[in-house]
Amino acid sequence: xxxxxxxxxxxxxxxxxxxxxxxxxxxxxxxxxxxxxxxxxxxxxxxxxxxxxxxxxxxxxxxxxxxxxxxxxxxxxxxxxxxxxxxxxxxxxxxxxxxxxxxxxxxxxxxxxxxxxxxxxxxxxxxxxxxxxxxxxxxxxx
Length: 142
Description:
It is built from 7 helices and no strands.
């Protein structure tokens, strides 16, 4: 596995487990801390980011199959640009229409206290699956 994948995985894991460390850059009145930055992100913002990421991934996959170069390989530049634009418009449309995505989950019977731990469990299970699928060695991190 390349060094770039290891750095990306280490960065993502450190962001995921930042609440365990609770480190602050500067304490005091008016100071910046990572905890205050993460506390300013609400559930609605997180839901919109998740909608953007999911729609981008699905559209990028679909457009990658559609747009090919002269050698038959996916044209990632065109697929990525179009996917980014459409995903941005989807997220913006959901934001402007005030559609309550978290209320949709609650309406399906998923309790508020269970929703965010469930999302965290899904993310951790996804990371384990990616590590297992690509046979990423974690011996360099320990």
